[in-house]
Amino acid sequence: MKRQLLLLSVLMLMLCGFAQAQINKPSISPTIKTVQKVGLAEISLEYGQPNMQGRTIFGNLIPFGKLWRTGANASTKFTTDKNIVIGLLEIPAGTYGIYSIPEKESWTIIFHKNAKLWGASNFKEEEEFGRIIVNTTTLKDARETLSIAFENFTTDGADLTISWEHTQIKLAVLVDSDAIILDEIASKITNATGEIKAQTYFDAGQFYQFKNIDLDQAERWYDKAIEMRPKAFWYKYYRAEVALLKKEYEVAKTYASQSLKQAKAQAPATDFGYIAKNELLLAKLK
């Protein structure tokens, strides 16, 4: 028994010494975590961010034709809270590992169902969700640090770019925002069982107006909103815009004049630019 206790004590001392020997040092490929709103989807990225450090990257450090984790350390993780489309892939909400097979003129991007792998270890093709082939573009100035980010935003998506050294690829990420908003309108107005707020009617009217879906319905929702909040002069401005689109010029003039009068009463601190907007609208109606 004493021998066992002695061995246990020695083992504990060894473990303590090992723990004390660990040096807390910064990573040369730090983990980057970003969360970005893309259309109506919230997408997060997590990846290890390596640097060139004077090395030749593609075709050397990262061989052409070989599977790459698309970053450093653990595999790159991509999480979306909405269904999205990338290339020809319809990707359900969830978390995926992003792997790639770089070539000189194109890359194969792989969305993998197992996002818990360390790098490319234990990668299994049967766990792939799907693949996309995308052409590369050449950057004039070298990108020292790997960057995975979104840019070129629209209301329905953005480009997911991967840039490093002199190479960049872009993946178009599309979010069917219209379908999501129409479902929300149906839930909060058409099929609503409780109280509906003026702002909800206004938002629905504005969506129908901007998408030119049904201007008559947009008018009815704007009218509801104005009835509930008659002092909201910006509601009347958009009601005037719809009337103008429908060539109801006198109606448009009435609402724009009312909106302008109320906006001027709030000036100069809180007209939110609607004095100028209404004046421009009224100029069109002369």
List its salient traits.
single chain, 286 residues, alpha+beta, Serine Threonine Protein Phosphatase 5, Tetratricopeptide repeat, 4-stranded antiparallel β-sheet, 7 helices, 36% helix
Summary, kept brief:
The chain is α+β, with helices and mostly antiparallel strands. The protein folds into 2 domains: 26-174, no CATH class; 177-284, Tetratricopeptide repeat domain (Serine Threonine Protein Phosphatase 5, Tetratricopeptide repeat, Alpha Horseshoe).
How would you portray this structure in words?
The protein is built from seven helices and ten strands. It is α+β, with helices and mostly antiparallel strands. It has two domains: 26-174, no CATH class; 177-284, Serine Threonine Protein Phosphatase 5, Tetratricopeptide repeat, CATH 1.25.40.10. The strands form two sheets. It has a six-stranded antiparallel β-sheet with strand order 1-2-3-6-7-8, with no helix packed on it. A four-stranded antiparallel β-sheet has the order 5-4-10-9, with no helix packed on it. β9 (137-154) and β10 form a beta hairpin. The termini are far apart. The model has no long low-confidence stretch (mean pLDDT 91).
Helix and strand topology:
Elements: H1 2-21, E1 31-38, E2 41-48, E3 72-80, E4 84-86, E5 89-91, E6 94-102, E7 106-112, E8 128-135, E9 137-154, E10 157-174, H2 177-190, H3 198-211, H4 215-228, H5 233-245, H6 249-266, H7 274-284
Antiparallel strand pairs: 1-2, 2-3, 3-6, 4-5, 4-10, 6-7, 7-8, 9-10
Helix pairs in contact: 2-3, 3-4, 4-5, 5-6, 5-7, 6-7
